[in-house]
Design brief:
Elements lengths: L2 H57 L2 H23 L2 E6 L5 H4 L3 H15 L9 E7 L2 E11 L5 H4 L7 H10 L13 E10 L6
Antiparallel strand pairs: 1-4, 2-3, 3-4
Bound molecules: heme C (HEC).
Heme C (HEC) binds next to helix 2, strand 1, helix 3, helix 5 and strand 4.
Length: 203
């Protein structure tokens, strides 16, 4: 190899490195940007829901609070989905409403990962999982943020003997296949799940 060849080779390698960096860095930056936007939307969802649950529990009592989980949660999810052009939803590790709450394969995997991370001592607060996933319709950005069981959730998601009779009767009537009971405080209840089509350039 002559000196000229070496120089040429270095130039080629240098150009390759620049091309590689240019294609990788924006992808990284883009995912970081999506992570930030998705985190904000998930937090808005959980904060609105948490505030409404607290207010309804003290004002209307648990029978009124059923509406927060059953009606307000899908309403907020719907509003955020339309506002952003993403699918914003809530999934459960065990499910009361299969139509809205059943996790798909990717979501199931993320839920298991959250449970494992929690078992190793990581707090659910601040935990997220995101990934760009190839699907038949194109690439999608997917994001999940865990939802932990708080003491006030046990009234409707705790062990059935701890659920007041009036609530248990309503739940049984409305959700004969209810599996979202038997939770303990601090356990993983589910997650906010966000799915964004990438090629439309949504953020
Ligand atoms: C007063 C009763 C009540 C309380 C309290 C309650 N939930 Fe629910 N929850 C429900 C009902 C009813 C549904 C089913 C909603 C539907 O029909 O889509 C549900 C559904 C859910 C789901 C969707 C997955 C599924 O199982 O269908 C999640 C996640 C959830 N609740 C989390 C919580 C958390 C976290 C808390 C505490 C902050 C909580 N819930 C408190 C009644 C309650």
């Amino acid at each position: 190899m002559t000196i000229k060849d070496t120089v040429r080779m270095r130039t080629v390698l240098g150009v390759c490195a620049v091309i590689l960096a240019c294609s990788v860095i924006p992808a990284w930056a883009e995912v970081a940007e999506r992570d930030k936007a998705a985190s904000e939307v998930a937090t808005t969802f959980l904060n609105e829901l948490g505030a409404a649950m607290k207010k309804e529990m003290t004002k209307g009592g648990p029978m009124e609070a059923i509406k927060v989980c059953a009606e307000l949660a899908p309403k907020i999810a719907g509003r955020l989905s339309r506002e952003h052009g993403w699918r914003v939803t809530r999934v459960g590790t065990r499910v009361r409403n299969p139509l809205l709450g059943m996790p798909d394969a990717w979501e199931q995997q993320a839920l298991s990962e959250f449970a494992e991370r929690s078992a190793k001592g990581e707090a659910f607060a601040g935990m997220v999982h995101s990934e760009v996933v190839a699907e038949p319709g194109g690439p999608y950005y997917r994001f999940m943020k865990p939802i932990a069981v708080q003491p006030q959730c046990l009234l409707c998601h705790g062990p059935s003997e701890q659920i007041p009779d009036a609530i248990r009767t309503v739940l049984k009537q409305r959700y004969p296949f209810d599996a979202a009971v038997g939770y303990k405080a601090g356990e993983l209840r589910g997650a906010v799940s966000i799915k964004q089509p990438i090629d439309r350039g949504n953020h």
